[in-house]
Amino acid sequence: MSKNPLRNPTRGGRTWIPRFIVSLDPQVCTGCGFCSKVCPAGVLHRIDDGVVVIGTPDDCRGCEVCERTCKVGAIRCRPREELP
């Protein structure tokens, strides 16, 4: 296994290098769960008490569907290069 923390083996045995990161502002999130329904990678999850959590952030594909779906602007999806 690679010593690089950004490299994670996938179930298929190939190496996955996450290129995007999704963040969620819990102060803004209303818990509607629309983002979890539209995320093709299954990164976001709405749990029973109406809270949305980021379950597998390294699986983010950067499609920004969750960000565009969020009516209150609680989600951001950015390439890792744009992060400080």
- Overall CATH class of the domain at 27-82: Alpha Beta
Number of helices: 2
The low-confidence runs, each spanning 5 or more residues with pLDDT under 50, are 1-7
Shape: globular
CATH architecture of the domain at 27-82: 2-Layer Sandwich
* Major sheet strand order: 1-2
What structural category do the secondary elements indicate? alpha+beta
Please outline the major beta sheet.
2 strands, antiparallel
Strand content: 15-25%
The helical percent reads 10-25%
Mean pLDDT over the residues: 82
Q: What Rg is obtained from the alpha carbons, in whole angstroms?
A: 14 Å
Give the termini distance in whole angstroms: 26 Å
Count the E strands.
6
Question: SSE order in H/E notation?
Answer: EEEHEEHE
The CATH topology of the domain at 27-82 is Alpha-Beta Plaits
